[in-house]
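I'm stuck. Protein, please.
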Amino acid sequence: MSINRVIISGNLTRDPELRQTASGLPVLGFGVAVNDRRKNQQTGEWEDYPNFVDCTMFGTRAESVAKFLSKGSKVAIEGKLRWSQWERDGQKRSKIEVIIDELEFMSSRDSGSSGASSNYVAPPEAPAVNASVYDEDIPF
């Protein structure tokens, strides 16, 4: 068994880009900066080191969410990792990105990145898991 779940929170590094596939499926792409806190060995001080994560959302939710996001917006994201590989100008390229299942706005639209929570969660498009499964039914 393997698990592919990612939960991150951070600020958008650029304005989101809304595109469409050849079949007309909306695709929203943006970057999120997530800090990693480490102790500086020379100074003994704790420092933040940013990690830049590419994020992608598909479907009608992507169109809706795009209206409320801009560079600097604080978000919480839950999703899965996906690795892609392609060739451009004879060079092989690859990247790991987060495919978004759920997104929560952590800053209001008016405040940008002030940290005020709007408590809106973009609901998943897929139907919920069958609620008739209880802990007693799990074999471990």
Remarks:
- Residues 112-120, 126-140 have pLDDT under 50 and may be disordered.
- The chain has one domain: 6-137.
